[in-house]
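Pasting as-is:
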Amino acid sequence: MKTPLQPADGDHYQRPNQIWVCGLAEEGVACPHGPDARGRCPGTAQCHPVRDGDRWMCNRSALRGGPCSQGPDPDGRCPCVSQCRPARSLRHKRGRMAASLAAAACGALLMTLSANWRNEALAPGPLSVHHAQLLHPSRQTERCAACHEAGGKSAQAWLIGDDSPATPQHALCLKCHDQVIEPELALAAHTSRFWEKEATDSSAGRPRRDPRAPIACASCHREHQGSDHSLVAIDDDACQACHQTQFTNFALDHPAFDDWPYRRRTPIRFDHASHEGKHYVEAKRDFHCAECHAADESGARQTTLNFETSCAGCHDEKMQLSWAEGVELLALPELDVELLQESSPFGGPWPEAATGDFDG
């Protein structure tokens, strides 16, 4: 190494793990020894006099003010003795503050768990309007216990293991919803008999998840999202938590409309009411059945027209904008191989045996 890590005339290395530091450190004249482990100042001399012939010379460093005017005693002792009140180091102060805050947080948590209003304080959010109306007359503890078994237990039961089997939350849900849901479909992912259909996924080449396998109600129906939240509305993120085929957006992942309308009955139900009462009204267009449907040759039944005729007039422009690449703000330099092949005087693709750097 060409340069030392610390100049020779610098102060002594301050160890970061020491509890006490010299009280004169704030003034920039800390003693080289520092306090002991108990925080007591040793009261050492400011220098170690050196003997020059028959005389003693002061050897105080420039950091501490240079040689003193008094000079050493005749017996070679320094008369300038530094005495200070040692202070705790900044690292130790931060450690004590962190420990105090952690202890205060633990105390506040224990007080919250042992208080009568703990369920109200720990509630993640307000209930939906339907559940809130049903549980409004109940106390907070009873309201939580209606859907959460742990809501009626004490804080000690939360922290200490219990050998008794806990009641699943979906069982508490079915206490109220047992009349409108078939028992065999209550915990199914979809209320349809999918197991009567194809049992394997032909596109992925691996078996599907058994639709009859139970799934918790809260996996799709999220509570504590506010009074305006609909429990029956499920977003795409909730669906893709189980479905392995990810669907990013309509423009990139939706299948092509080459053979649409399909001969088989699709599971998608076209919402005529929203198109007539909302979308056509916003576009200031008249809603006519003939725009999407036409009679067959016999005139006995109505058929659905293709995508370009019935849907593209409203949806094609939005889809084109959704998969547009946009404006490049930052791009790496690269060669447009297709453009080179078209404009190259030599013609043909780039030589495979070409080596060396690109010149130009």
